[in-house]
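Reposting from the mailing list since nobody answered there.

I have sequence plus structure tokens for a pair of proteins and want to know whether others read the tokens the same way I do. The first protein:
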Amino acid sequence: MAKSTLYGIGVNAQDVENIAMALGCKSGSLPILYLGLTVGSKLKKLNDWKPVIDKFNTRLTGWKARSMSFGGRLILIKSVLSSLPLYFFSLYRAPTGIINLLESMRRKFFWGGAGDSSKMAWVKWDDILVPYESGGLNVGSLKAKNLALTSKWWWHFRVESGALTLFGRSEADRVHSLLASVSLNNGSPDTWKWALNDKGHSKTSIMASEMDEKLLQNGYQPSETVRNKLAPKKIEIFAWRAIRRRLPT
């Protein structure tokens, strides 16, 4: 027990210390860092998200944006920068300021900026985030990813019997008791089905895409685009910019 630490939620600090002494362990106070995540804080402040921002800065510092092609930068944004905050995004709703900061870092890197220096953005970032069929580059917004990941808990609470034990089930049990006598499907038990998926299961990528359709300014309007899987990315992006008349002349 000497290596353990006791924390209290809604308990007087002195009571926690007394119990810790009786158990032969240390007493502590929230928030704490557990498995890389801050526990006991709502993560509403910029400093709470410093680990994510530091990860972005560390990656961007090691990359030479100006020496990379647009294709190389796009691949790194999709495969690395878009994935770095997902651990935090899966449990916490990120403040708007954090989302805007991370998006600005992705946008600056895409256009070849580095550190405090920026380069001219020839296309609106929202138009880059949308899918290929809507005229974008299929990057996807971080806000949609955050909303999709946190909303997935809502789905787990309804389809998995033990999902609510982590957070308490009093409200859920109350709702279930009210619906116990209601049957919508005679002859078989009622179940939740995910309407956006043929198999009836939730999928984060589909949820994020649906949210982006509502969040991004162009609303996923069909648009002329160029996409050839055999062509190098930098050629594909050059053609995409040419169609939009967004090339320096």
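The second protein, same order (residues first, tokens after):
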Amino acid sequence: MRSLHLVLGLGFIGLILGGRCYTDYKYDTGMFTDSERLDQRLLSLGNCQEWCDETPRCKGVVLSPVDWAVRECYLVATTHITARSGWESSSLTNCGLDYWSKNAGKYLSGYSAGTAKYDSLLKAQSECLKRSDCGGITYETSSRKFTLRTGIDLKDSSSSEISWIYNRFVLKIAPRSGGIRDKRISRLFWPNFAIPRNLTGYTLNYT
């Protein structure tokens, strides 16, 4: 019974989070057929996925090369996006417990030590997870770079920046008589959930 409750609980966590999840942007992918193209317009990386969320039948997004003066976003009705030199793509995927949350119009303070600016979100995310001083990533509209930041508190951006924070979920089952509980989650699907939070999000812990 405990295992069943755990599985149901994880499902409800996904519902609480809301929204849809995407794969990381992949370099040198972006080929699709004309019949799979839904629409296109000039948009930034983050806004491209938001547009897909609002568009029926959209299953993926494709971005023109980073060296174009203005990047073009294509919405496609497939997750099967094949190789295309210089282009990038991202597809809908099942939401996992660990994920990068996107926060439009927000920035994180301070640069991480060492190289802190990257052309690719995927590369920036990979490097951030290797560093102890990296709290997240901010896309700078001025430099058009994905930057590694030390801050963990999201702040309002006056220049339409976008930030990503890595969220790690911890699911801890506490005794009915003790433990810190998130009442919202407990009330919805199981009274024995205690959800401790650390600086980067939640950590998985099942006891």
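Reply #1 (J.P.):
I read it the same way you do. The mean pLDDT is 75.
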